[in-house]
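We store sequence, tokenised fold; for instance:
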Amino acid sequence: MDELAQDGFKSLMGNELATLWRSLIESRIGMVLPARQHQLFEQRIVKNMAQYALDATSYYQLVCKDKAEWQRLAESLVVHETSFFRHTPSFELVEQYLVKANKSVKLWSVGCSTGEEAWSLAMLGDRFAMYGYEVLATDISQQVLLTAKEGVYLARKAEQIPARFRSGYGTALGQHYWQIAEHLKSNVFFRQFNLMNVVGLPFRKLDIIYCQNVLIYFKKFDRRDILNALVKCLDIGGILVLGPGEVLEWRHPQLKKIEWSGTLAYEKVCI
């Protein structure tokens, strides 16, 4: 690491510039950077500073005005760890809803990352939604959306898929990869979206909103605003599925808690 990078690394956190960085991140994507990610974030900034031969202040100014550079840096902040059918009880709840649905069902995978969650919902929709389904899948990261759209994963990832779905919804690509079946792709729509744009969310009358491992990165009041906006996107009778333990001390007059073991989910009702 060169001298410029070393000096930048030492001065980024714990000073006025670090406060500016945190404010920038929170204002643009609402994310509260966990302490465990501070060092990784510093290292990424230092690497980019060295690439442009800029000091810390100059690089901060570049990120503020250059959309492409901001997007490049933002990509490094988002945690992309996910898996197929990650939280079994929640997917079992979705399955029950789909079995009972008497209309075409619209689902939203919020913070879909590399797509495993969205494809899991699509498998359930294809199997159990008798009147059809569509999955909207959004994420702030354009990079992970490209992976999600392609639908190609390491073979060991496919082992997370229950056996009853694995054979009908994908095929092996050689020994090391597994590809999502083409017939699922026509029902899943990926879109880049920032959850901080809660005012006037463009999605309406959704039947299932699946939002897990996303809200934990937002401040309490931003979390509340996002949740209230998500409720507006739900149709009456639709369900909001959250991560267990992600949301505390939040209530909404149009939501009724669903009693389903191991889950945190609500149904939208008339008032």
